[in-house]
């Protein structure tokens, strides 16, 4: 009996201590966890709006051929292959097949001048461009001894020059191609299984050009959006891209050897030796080298981080910025003695969640920075009047709105420095913990609820 009495007395003391501490901190923690539900709904809404935006982008880029890739030039030199088959009656059946010898240029110089513009679909603006792509280069004389191909087997009058692109929709007109200064005509027949390109324009070559080598030019008008790419197929490649687009992005298998970027646009130049590519100087058509899987150089016409990405990044810090106002109100309770109902906490938390909805919806029509400060000002004014009302003094409302404003300024700075966002966020959270410890280090958390002197 004595042991039972001691155990009951111990439990009673624990219950009394818990009641003295109060349940408010646990209610605040529960509310923070509860608000994760609407925050996840906001994230889903952001993803939905991104999906609608991407649909609008695709609906504009699809008719323009998407992101153009200039896959290059090759020559296709046909030759006959004779096979003999001995029949049962002792006679010999001879069969002739046409195969092609594929050769890459000795040199290829591409100059692309890109003019971007915006097209609108609903509320979304999509960057697209038109491009003047001028190519110059040369091919060596046909190496008909390659793989023991006899000169007598070559069909010189059927030699072809192939121009490769990722999508023929990218070409707004038929490219004008010359060989040794002579305009080339498109071929009426496009042999199957010869071209290494995704899509090909076939041109007929003069006999003397294929036999002795030739210099070529190509003037093409290209459209598309997102990026412009080129595949370095020649033994010596030199690509130059210029545009008045101020925010380019360079990627692919090679970065520019020279670049100049300013608010007025950019220029970039690549110099690539054929030794660093996957293409041999020549190959036979029965051993294809698909260009679509080869590395390319890429000049991207990048839109700076859009409103959806920035809003999503801001929502990632939402729990912290829910915790700050809740803890601020709780500290105010300790200092003022005014009891705040959990419903009032919920209303303040709802205002913080609505901030992200305002950020998402208004930024679709107004630049993100302006939207951010408009939404921040709206929420701060709302919480100023509400906190002043529940604490019966304007100074507490102003102080609470000030804390909100400082947290929004901190968040905006974090969003602008993506590379240091984790560091800034960690330091900010540490400073908040330090501040809470300083403000509450004299609080007697075991003071009874009827004892107004919480600070010892």
Give the total of beta strands: 16
Separation, N- and C-terminal Cα atoms: 39 Å
* CATH hierarchy: architecture of the largest domain: Sandwich
What letter string, H or E per element, gives the SSE order?
HHHEEEEEEEEHEEEEEEEEHHHHHH
What's the alpha carbon Rg, rounded to whole Å?
36 Å
| Approximate helicity band | 25-40%
User: What is the total number of structural domains?
Assistant: 2
Work out the helix count. Answer: 10
CATH class of the largest domain: Mainly Beta
Strand residues, percent: 25-35%
Tell me the overall shape: elongated
Alpha-beta classification: alpha+beta
Poorly predicted runs are 10-21, 448-452
Quote the CATH topology of the largest domain.
Immunoglobulin-like
Main beta sheet: strand number and arrangement? 8 strands, mixed
Q: pLDDT average, as an integer?
A: 82
Supply database-style keywords.
single chain; 456 residues; 2 domains; 28% strand; elongated; Immunoglobulin-like; alpha+beta
Describe what this molecule looks like in 3D.
The chain is an alpha+beta fold. It has 2 domains: 23-53 and 307-441, no CATH class; 67-300, Immunoglobulin-like, CATH 2.60.40. It has helices at 2-21, 24-34, 36-61, 207-212, 307-315, 318-336, 342-362, 368-391, 394-416, 421-440, and strands at residues 69-86, 92-103, 107-121, 124-139, 160-165, 176-179, 182-183, 199-204, 214-224, 227-230, 236-243, 248-252, 258-262, 265-273, 282-284, 297-301. Strands 1, 2, 5, 8, 10, 12, 15 and 16 form an 8-stranded mixed beta sheet that branches. Helix 8 runs antiparallel to helix 9. The longest helix is centred in the first third of the chain and has 26 residues, at 36-61. The radius of gyration is 36 Å and the shape is elongated. The chain starts with a helix and ends in a 16-residue tail after the last helix. 31% of the residues are buried.
């Amino acid at each position: 009996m004595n042991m039972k009495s001691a155990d009951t007395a111990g439990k009673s003391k624990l219950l009394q201590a818990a009641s003295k501490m109060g349940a408010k901190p646990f209610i605040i923690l529960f509310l923070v966890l509860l608000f994760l539900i609407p925050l996840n709904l906001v994230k889903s809404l952001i993803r939905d709006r991104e999906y609608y935006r991407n649909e609008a982008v695709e609906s504009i880029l699809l008719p323009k051929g998407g992101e153009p890739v200039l896959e290059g030039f090759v020559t296709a030199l046909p030759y006959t292959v004779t096979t003999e088959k001995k029949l049962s009656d002792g006679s010999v059946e001879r069969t002739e097949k046409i195969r092609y010898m594929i050769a890459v240029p000795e040199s290829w110089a591409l100059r692309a001048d890109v003019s971007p513009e915006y097209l609108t679909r609903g509320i979304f603006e999509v960057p697209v461009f038109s491009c003047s792509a001028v190519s110059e280069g040369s091919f060596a004389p046909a190496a008909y001894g390659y793989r023991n191909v006899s000169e007598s087997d070559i069909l010189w009058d059927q030699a072809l020059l192939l121009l490769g692109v990722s999508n023929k929709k990218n070409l707004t007109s038929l490219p004008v191609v010359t060989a040794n200064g002579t305009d080339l005509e498109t071929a009426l027949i496009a042999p199957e299984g010869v071209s290494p390109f995704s899509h090909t324009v076939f041109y007929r070559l003069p006999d003397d050009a294929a036999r002795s080598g030739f210099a070529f030019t190509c003037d093409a008008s290209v459209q598309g959006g997102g990026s412009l790419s080129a595949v370095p197929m020649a033994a010596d490649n030199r690509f130059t891209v210029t545009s008045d687009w101020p925010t380019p992005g360079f990627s692919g298998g090679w970065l520019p050897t020279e670049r100049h970027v300013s608010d007025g646009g950019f220029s970039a130049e690549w110099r690539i030796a054929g030794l660093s590519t996957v293409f041999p100087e020549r190959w036979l058509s029965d051993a294809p080298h698909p260009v679509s899987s080869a590395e390319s150089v890429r000049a991207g016409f990048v839109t700076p981080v859009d409103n959806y990405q920035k809003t999503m990044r801001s929502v990632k810090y939402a729990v912290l910025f829910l915790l700050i106002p809740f803890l601020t109100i709780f500290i105010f309770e300790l200092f003022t003695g005014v009891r705040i109902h959990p419903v009032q906490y919920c209303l303040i938390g709802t205002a913080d969640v609505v901030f992200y909805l305002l950020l998402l919806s208004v930024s679709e029509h107004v630049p993100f920075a302006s939207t951010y400060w408009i939404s921040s000002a709206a929420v701060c004014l709302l919480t100023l009047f509400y906190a002043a009302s529940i604490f019966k003094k304007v100074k507490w409302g102003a102080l609470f709105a000030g804390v909100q404003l400082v947290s929004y300024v901190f968040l905006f700075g974090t969003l602008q420095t993506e590379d240091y966002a984790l560091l800034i966020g960690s330091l900010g959270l540490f400073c908040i913990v330090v501040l809470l410890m300083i403000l509450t280090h004299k609080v007697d958390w075991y003071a009874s609820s009827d004892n107004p002197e919480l600070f010892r």
